[in-house]
Write a structure and sequence with these properties.
mainly alpha, three-stranded antiparallel sheet
């Protein structure tokens, strides 16, 4: 049974969901929530790849720079960045090495606790992360969402992030210290 993508019935008193051409020809009696989120993730990942590659940076590197840009005094510990982005310490060390050699951040011992390392965003790091951030905002504005619809969409996305984060935490697959607004804060 092929689906036209609109197999989901309209909610009572609501409008039918729009047809999705990405489901055409697939045997999907109902395109569920997770399938839609996976598709959205693919589209956003492609967009982020395009925007960051134009700036000469990898998406994972931009996320680290973005966390630093939004941190007090553009500083943070590698451990905190790992917590926020759900990354391993080994992978973060490689990323920090790469970003440091590019001149986008510096690494130094914490003056209050020499066992800790503090990462600080350089001016060049501020500039490239701001440039990517501005491009993301421009793309978001080009969507043409009216303010009320944008607010509703953000609220629903926050709700879904909390819901999925909670479900993942219950399964032991996510860290509760990575709140939904971390990525929103990179905007």
């Amino acid at each position: 049974m092929a689906s036209n993508g609109s197999a989901s019935p309209p909610e009572p008193g609501g409008e039918a969901p729009p047809a999705h051409d990405w489901t055409t020809g697939l045997d999907l009696p109902d395109v569920g929530l997770v399938a839609r989120i996976v598709r959205l993730n693919m589209l956003v990942t492609r967009l982020l790849d395009e925007i960051t590659s134009t700036a000469g940076i990898a998406p994972s590197d931009y996320l680290v720079l973005g966390v630093l840009r939004r941190s007090p005094d553009h500083r943070s510990s590698p451990t905190r960045i790992c917590e926020l982005l759900g990354r391993s310490s080994g992978g973060m060390t490689l990323t920090i090495d790469r970003l440091e050699s590019a001149g986008w951040l510096t690494r130094a011992a914490d003056p209050d606790d020499r066992r800790r390392v503090i990462i600080t965003l350089s001016q060049a790091g501020v500039e490239i992360s701001t440039r990517v951030n501005d491009a993301l905002h421009a793309w978001e504005e080009a969507l043409g969402l009216p303010p009320r619809r944008r607010t509703e969409t953000i609220r629903m996305a926050d709700h879904l992030l909390a819901l999925f984060g909670s479900a993942a935490s219950d399964r032991g697959a996510a860290d509760e210290t990575a709140p939904a607004d971390v990525l929103a804060g990179l905007r």
